Structure prediction request, 403 residues.
Amino acid sequence: MKNLNGHIPTLLKIWRNNGNSSSLNQKEYDAVSSALLKLQRGLTGKRELAGAGYMENRDFLGAYLLYYWPVTYTQVQMALKTTALNGLDFRQFNQKEELRILDLGSGPGPAGISLCDFFCNSGIKKIHVTAADFSAKALAMAEKIYREDFKDAAVTVKKVVSNFENNSLEKSLAFSNSSNDKKFDLIVMSHALNELWKEEKSACEKRKSFLDQVCNFLSDDGILFLMEPALLKTSRALIELRNYLVEKKFFAVSPCCGKEKCPVLADGENITCHGEYSWKPLPLVDEIARRAKLERNSVKMTFFVFRKNALEKVEKNIYTVVSEGMLNKSGRIRFLLCDGKKRIACSAKKDDLHAKETGFFDLKRYDKIILENPEIRGENKDAFGISKETAIAHPLQQRDSHC
Prediction:
C-alpha cells in the first residue's frame, strides 16, 4: 500500500488537472509558495480563510494539496502510532469483514486516506469510506485520489455533500433505511470542528450537540478521532469538547487515557496542550515551505481518540510529557508532566550527568514515563527534580504497536 510519497504524483495531477505529475517548475514553485504564505496567514490569527472555500482559488488549492494535505496525512499517522503505543492495538478491526470509516469535513481526503493506508498495511482486507463535506469540489478531488491510489486495494468511497450547520447529521448524510448503514467503526473529524459555527458565541454548545449526533453513528466497539490545529483557541476548544465527551459518554484513549477531565483549562486562559512530532518532510513539501519561509521540522496538532469502553489494561502511575524542554534562568531544563489530574514541573540542571543518562533531556511531547524517586521541589512541594536516586522508565516504548 502507498505511503505519503506514493500519493504525491496524484496530488500533482489533480492540481494541474492535466494528468501531469512531474516535479514543479520554478514558476509553479513561486506561485504555490506565495499562496501558501497567504493561506497560512489566513488560517492563523483571525483565521479569515478558515472555512472560506479557499480551494476554489487555483493557487490556494495548490498550497493545500501540496503542503497542507501531506501535513494532515502525517499528523494522522503520528496520532495513530501514539494511540497504538497507548494500548489500543486496533486488532478488533481485523475480525470484521469490512471496516467502515466516516470522514466528516473530509475536504480532499487526507485524513481518510491516511487511515486507509494505516489499516491496509495492517492486513485489513476491505475498507469503505464515507466522505462528507460541504464542498462538492473538494469531495470530487478526494474521490479521484481514492480511485487512483487504491486501484489494487479493496477500498471504496462514497462522497456526500453535507451542511452540518444547517441540517441534522442524519439528514446531511442521507442514509438509507438500513441500520447497518448508520454505524461506523471509525469516525474521524480533522481540522473541521473549529470551522463550524466559528463566528457564534454559542459555538461550543452547538459543537457539543453535533458530537452527540456523531456518537450515535459509532459502533459499540468503534473509535472517535478528533484533531484540530495546534493553535491556542482551537486547541482549548477541542480540550473543552474532550472534557464533555469523557464526562458524558466516552473514555479517552489517546494521547491521555481515562475519564479524568483535562486540567489545562483550569490552569489559565493562555494554557493549552498539543502534540509535536519531529518530521523530515518530503522534498516537495520542504521546498515549498522553504520558499514561503516557514519552518517544517515538526508537525503539531491537538488530537484525541475516544471509545465507548475503557481499555482492558491502562498503565498506572504514568506521566505524560506535555511540553518541550525549557531552560530557565537558574540553568535548569524543565518539562511539564501530566498525571491526568494536574500538571507538574520536573527539572534538572542542564549539565547534570545523571539526568542525561536517564534520558531526561531527550524527552518529547506525549512521551509516557514512570518517574521513580524524584526530588521534591518548589515552595509548596509541587514540583519534581532529577536527583541521583531518580530513575525514568519508558513503559510503552517496547510495546508491540503493530495493529
Q: What stands out?
A: The mean pLDDT is 88. DSSP finds eleven helices and 16 strands in the chain. The two ends are 15 Å apart (CA to CA).
